[in-house]
Amino acid sequence: MADITAETDRLILRTIEESDAEEQMRVLNTPSVMARLGGVKELHEIEAKHAKSMALYAREGFSFLFMIEKATGEMVGHCGIKRVDNPLAPNQGDHEVGWLVREDRWRLGLAEEAMRAVLDWAFTRVGAPHVVALTSGANVGSWKLMEKLGMVRRENLDFSDPAFPPEDNPTIQYSLTHEQWENTR
């Protein structure tokens, strides 16, 4: 049974279950949604990410979550906290926040709403001293939301990842400390 980690006005943020992979594949794993995230994934890749997320939640009490729209009960995205695990990143192990929203719900403010709840979770219940978010310079919507959330660009944490196409390199990072978050609430 999934745990509800947070609720917002329009969303329930709940833990991932093994049975979620096919639904994620259907509604979130589209060329548009995955364009800046390494492209569409195979079902086995989604299942492996789910297993990793569930293990992280069991071990550390945080992970990525599904965004369920209260009005419809539909999966509309995912968001949450994990550890920076890219071996090329200079800050492996930091608390990393992230999100994605299905295409038919873009520009409705759902990512911002969810991420404000995730940041609250990160800084109050998880106890993260700071969080980072990773994207590419080409993902303008992503880094603009990072700035809207009060995050600060950290060029010293940028890195190149050959797994991504040239237009998505380098990977850029933004960060937010607990103190900065307190000042923006």
Structure description:
By secondary structure, the protein is an alpha+beta fold. It has one domain: Aminopeptidase (3-Layer(aba) Sandwich), CATH 3.40.630. The protein has helices spanning 21-27, 31-34, 43-60, 110-126, 140-148, 178-184, and strands at residues 4-7, 11-15, 64-69, 75-83, 95-101, 130-136, 152-153, 171-177. An 8-stranded mixed sheet has the order 1-2-3-4-5-6-8-7, sandwiched between helices. The model has no long low-confidence stretch (mean pLDDT 93).
Helix content: 25-40%
- The best one-word shape is globular
The main sheet orders its strands as: 1-2-3-4-5-6-8-7
CATH A-level architecture: 3-Layer(aba) Sandwich
Mean residue pLDDT: 93
CATH top level is Alpha Beta
Q: What is the quaternary state of this protein?
A: single chain
Biggest pleated sheet? 8 strands, mixed
- Assess the beta-strand content as a share of residues: 25-35%
Secondary-structure content class: alpha+beta
Element pattern in H and E: EEHHHEEEHEHEEH
Number of helices, where a helix is a run of at least 4 consecutive DSSP H or I residues: 6
In CATH, what is the homologous superfamily?
Gcn5-related N-acetyltransferase (GNAT)
Which regions have little confidence, pLDDT < 50, spanning 5+ residues?
none
Labels describing this entry:
185 residues; alpha+beta; Aminopeptidase; eight-stranded mixed sheet; 8 strands; acyltransferase activity, transferring groups other than amino-acyl groups
